[in-house]
Write a structure and sequence with these properties.
Bound molecules: iron/sulfur cluster
Number of helices: 17
Shape: globular
Largest sheet: 9 strands, mixed
Structural class: alpha/beta
Number of strands: 17
Helix content: 25-40%
Distance between the termini: 25 Å
Number of domains: 2
Length: 477
């Protein structure tokens, strides 16, 4: 979800709670559809594959990729506001999907060889809809082909380590729906190394769940969280959505306090955004729903920060709050420009073209149609629907776009050093823009660990995207 402040991802700049950069295929994309429409009927082997990015320039220098995103496309129902690639599960494609996914994971594994994986995030779609026996296959495949040592070491989080650190070093997260997540599934997930679940609660008031067309019952959230805890899953995050049509500030306050009462240590709170061509956007255009007033939406945003900070959950990204040590390490990988592999239909990946992100990274996205995805590519990778080759200027723009949205802020020396190399004239422009933003009370300069950081001011969070846009303008197109 995004507001002016919220760049997007189901995990990346601009999007809905969940887990992936880059935006997904539209809601109309069913099992047979493809990227941009029309590719779904083509055999996958005829399409370019992720090998374009993974085997291409820079591979020799690239360090092992430490993060992995897996996209499962199945949902019990298509929610009206959703623009992620998913379709209504009819059970008959699950086994074929997992067979292809495992082949893809095997092909990708060589790119993480030599270092233990740091993060895995399974999103969707609704990963908890996958049948338990198929989950066993996926987890066995991961264990066979990837080094999960660090993930297993950190599976219990700081409770196991006995040390509270600022960020977790490793994690394995699975998104769950409160209705489909069972105690048996959590046991199997925990046995496979999963130490974190991200539960889509969205609201605790039935009328707002109904507006969003979410099918679960609010009371199921507590039941599912308890089942995850009982299975030994130490980190439990909730997703909430605010600015749902008809929602008042008082009702949002109830959602936040209910989430806190369930003992969650991580909350993602995104405002509802009206993505093009979704059912919700069409309802808005027809006048069947009314968007929440912008001023009320801003009050909801501010209320969230105040209440959660008081409860000990620090804002570490504009829409994400955690007890220190419970931040989503995987999402931080997206926001910090790290590398990640991508598996599953419509999954997006990012790998550097050299030893660091400085020269820019390849961004690529698997096809979003199941027929092309299931066909696979001749080289074992997935067919892709999109590929952006490395571009150092784009990489710099991305750093100043995501930095202001993070509590750690922008690494000033790092960004300016890259600017001098990539586009020398913009270094002075960046400093001048930052100075103006400091004068406007939106940015402050801090020194952390001996390094300068540009951070949005406590009162500037609502304007984080504005700050990012000013810095991006200084970099130029
Ligand atoms: S459950 Fe999540 S991924 Fe599935 S349709 Fe609803 S919002 Fe989209």
């Amino acid at each position: 979800m995004s507001e002016s402040v919220h760049i997007s991802i189901k995990g990346q700049p601009g999007g809905q709670p969940g887990g992936q950069p880059g935006g997904q295929s539209g809601p109309g994309s069913g099992p047979g559809s493809g990227p941009g429409g029309g590719l779904g009927s083509l055999p996958g082997s005829h399409l370019a594959t992720a090998g374009v990015a993974l085997e291409g320039a820079g591979r020799g220098e690239r360090p092992a990729v430490r993060s992995l995103y897996i996209h499962t496309p199945f949902c019990a129902h298509k929610c009206d506001y959703c623009d992620f690639y998913s379709f209504v599960d009819t059970q008959d494609l699950q086994a074929a999907f997992v067979r292809r996914l495992c082949a893809e994971l095997e092909a990708l594994a060589k790119h993480s060889a030599g270092a233990p994986l740091r993060t895995i995030f399974v999103g969707g779609g609704t990963p908890s809809l996958l049948r338990v026996e198929l989950w066993r296959d996926v987890l066995a495949c991961l264990s066979d082909h990837y080094d999960l040592g660090l993930i297993r070491k950190w599976q219990g989080g700081d409770e196991q380590e006995g040390v509270l650190r600022s960020w977790p070093e490793a994690e394995f997260t699975v998104e769950c729906n409160p209705e489909s997540a069972s105690a048996e599934l959590f046991d199997v997930l925990h046995g496979g190394g999963v130490g974190r679940v991200s539960m889509g609660a969205q609201s605790f008031l039935p009328k707002h769940l109904s507006t969003l067309q979410r099918l679960h019952r609010p009371e199921r959230v507590a039941v599912a969280l308890e089942a995850a805890r009982a299975a030994g899953i130490a980190r439990r995050s909730l997703d909430l959505i605010y600015a749902v049509p008809g929602q008042t500030l008082e009702e949002w306050a109830v959602d936040v306090s209910t989430a806190l009462s369930l003992g969650t240590t991580h909350l993602s709170c995104y405002n509802l955004t009206y993505e093009p061509s979704t059912g919700m956007t069409n309802r808005l255009k027809r006048g069947e729903v009314t968007a929440v007033d912008e001023e009320v939406e801003s009050l909801m945003f501010e209320h969230t920060g105040l209440v959660l900070e008081r409860a000990g959950l620090k804002r570490y990204e504009v829409s994400n709050y955690a007890v220190p040590g419970h931040e989503s390490r995987h999402n931080l990988a997206y926001w910090l420009g790290e590398q990640w592999l991508a598996a599953g239909p419509s999954a997006s990946g990012h790998v550097w073209a050299g030893a660091s992100v400085q020269g820019g990274g390849h961004r690529f996205k698997n096809v979003g149609g199941m027929s092309a995805y299931l066909a696979g590519g001749a080289d074992g990778y997935s067919p892709i629907g999109d590929h952006e080759p490395p571009d150092p200027v784009r990489a710099l723009r991305e750093r100043v776009m995501t930095g202001p949205r993070l509590a750690v802020g922008v690494d000033v020396e790092g960004v300016l050093a890259d600017a001098v190399l990539v586009r020398p004239a913009c270094a002075a422009r960046l400093e001048a823009a930052a100075l103006e933003l400091v004068g406007d009370g939106l940015l402050l300069e801090a020194v952390d660990g001996g390094r300068r950081r540009w951070r949005v001011t406590p009162g500037g969070w609502l304007m984080a995207d504005f700050v990012a846009k000013r810095l991006m303008k200084a970099v130029g197109e």
